[in-house]
């Protein structure tokens, strides 16, 4: 490709080009990603603190018997059951969708 055909929006290389110390400044899409990761981090920290603050032992009825276990394990188990159920529902919906649809 000839020099005259290059796109003008590419910055010039060499001493005239302004270099940033840590790379290019974040654009709109980057801020969206940063805010999502920050929100995810806050949710994870909140969830871990919630689990750790609920360590009391409780009695749980397991239909056939009753067990005395820490509340945190009930919460973790309920969370994992919810994750598995959500995955299975999504899997079944994807299998049921006709092949032509995307």
Structure description:
The protein has 102 residues and is mainly alpha-helical. It contains 2 helices and 2 strands. It has helices at 28-53, 71-96; strands at 57-61, 66-70. It has a two-stranded antiparallel ribbon with strand order 1-2. A hairpin with a 4-residue loop joins strand 1 and strand 2. The radius of gyration is 26 Å and the shape is flat. It starts with 27 loop residues before the first helix and ends in a 6-residue tail after the last helix.
What is the N-to-C order of secondary-structure elements (H for helix, E for strand)?
Answer: HEEH
What does the largest sheet look like? 2 strands, antiparallel
Helix content: 40-55%
Please state the overall shape, judged from the principal axes of the Cα atoms: flat
| Number of β-strand runs | 2
β-strand percent reads 5-15%
Mean pLDDT: 80
What is the tally of helical segments?
2
List keywords for this structure.
102 residues; mainly alpha; two-stranded antiparallel ribbon; 2 helices; 2 strands
Write the layout of secondary structure elements.
Blueprint: H1 28-53, E1 57-61, E2 66-70, H2 71-96
Antiparallel strand pairs: 1-2
């Amino acid at each position: 490709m000839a020099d005259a055909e290059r796109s003008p929006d590419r910055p010039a290389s060499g001493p005239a080009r302004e270099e940033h110390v840590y790379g290019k400044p974040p654009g709109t899409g980057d801020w969206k990603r940063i805010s999502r990761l920050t929100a995810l981090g806050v949710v994870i920290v909140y969830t871990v603190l919630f689990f750790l603050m609920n360590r009391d032992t409780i009695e749980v009825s397991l239909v056939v018997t009753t067990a005395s276990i820490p509340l945190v394990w009930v919460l973790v188990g309920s969370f994992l059951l919810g994750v598995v159920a959500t995955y299975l529902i999504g899997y079944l919906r994807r299998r049921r969708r006709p092949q032509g649809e995307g």
